[in-house]
Amino acid sequence: MKEGETLDKGIMDLIKNLIVAGIIALIISVFIKPTLVKGNSMYPSFHNNDYLLINKIPYILMEPNRGDVVIFKTSIMTSTVKVNNLVKRVIGVGGDLVEIKDGKIYVNGEKIKESYINDKYTNRDLRIRVPKDSFFVMGDNREISLDSRKLGPIKKDHIRGKAFFRIYPFNKLGMIK
């Protein structure tokens, strides 16, 4: 190979690498978004100011599952601020019968196991059939969570993505189960 051909090959390799890096950066910026946990409604799973990454791709291809931690858009006004996003756990999917009685949650007549909740008791008795294309969501800290018990079921098109990775605090860095 001549010196000019080697230089041309090096430039072409650099251009290819830049294009691939640009495509990867575009995909990440479009489908993976950071979000900050505000408040303690997901305690003990997440704390105020935990920094999470959400993935938009799973819910383009499939439906959220029971147990998934999702971020959804809202237009709730509290006494001090407008809330744009909430982080909650999916309890029921479209068609499910969700019942809260005697502090326990039942989905389609079966008591669910919830090792992740704060106080092992869920207040407010309720019985609701989750509409198609909607989800019943709750915070892990049931005493203070603003969730489907007050907001009603969340429509699929309001869900922004699935929380999949905690990036802060660093001592809890890792995948979200």
Spell out the blueprint of helices and strands:
Blueprint: H1 3-31, E1 32-36, E2 51-55, H2 58-61, E3 69-77, E4 82-93, E5 97-101, E6 104-107, E7 110-111, E8 126-129, E9 134-138, H3 148-151, E10 154-155, E11 159-168, E12 174-175
Antiparallel strand pairs: 1-2, 2-11, 3-4, 3-11, 4-9, 5-6, 5-8, 6-7, 9-10, 11-12
Structural features, described:
The structure is a single chain. This protein has 177 residues and is of the alpha+beta class. The chain has helices at 3-31, 58-61, 148-151, and strands at residues 32-36, 51-55, 69-77, 82-93, 97-101, 104-107, 110-111, 126-129, 134-138, 154-155, 159-168, 174-175. The protein contains three helices and twelve strands, in the order αββαβββββββαβββ. The strands form two sheets. Strands 1, 2, 3, 4, 9, 10, 11 and 12 form an eight-stranded antiparallel beta sheet that branches. Strands 7-6-5-8 form a four-stranded antiparallel beta sheet, with no helix packed on it. The termini are far apart.
Spell the H/E element sequence.
HEEHEEEEEEEHEEE
**CA gyration radius, whole angstroms:** 21 Å
Q: Which of globular, elongated, flat, extended, rod-shaped describes the shape?
A: elongated
Helix and strand composition category? alpha+beta
Low-confidence stretches: none
Distance between the termini: 53 Å
**Overall pLDDT score:** 89
Largest sheet: 8 strands, antiparallel
Number of helices: 3
- Proportion of residues in helical segments: 10-25%
